[in-house]
Amino acid sequence: xxxxxxxxxxxxxxxxxxxxxxxxxxxxxxxxxxxxxxxxxxxxxxxxxxxxxxxxxxxxxxxxxxxxxxxxxxxxxxx
Length: 79
What we know:
Elements: E1 6-13, H1 22-34, E2 38-45, E3 52-56, H2 59-75
Parallel strand pairs: 1-2
Antiparallel strand pairs: 2-3
């Protein structure tokens, strides 16, 4: 799965927990680098409740996203 800015890998489970493997993170980072994109891992929990998705990104990416969001708030809406 991919967007203009991100390359994602997706993992899902029907259980209440999921162990994240380092090889998954290495694979998504490698795939993102080949595409000149930011890496992300989407995790979906689908048990007996409504499916819920979570996203993991490296800390440096998260900090940039937070900075971008803060700048957007400070700059106000685009006209």
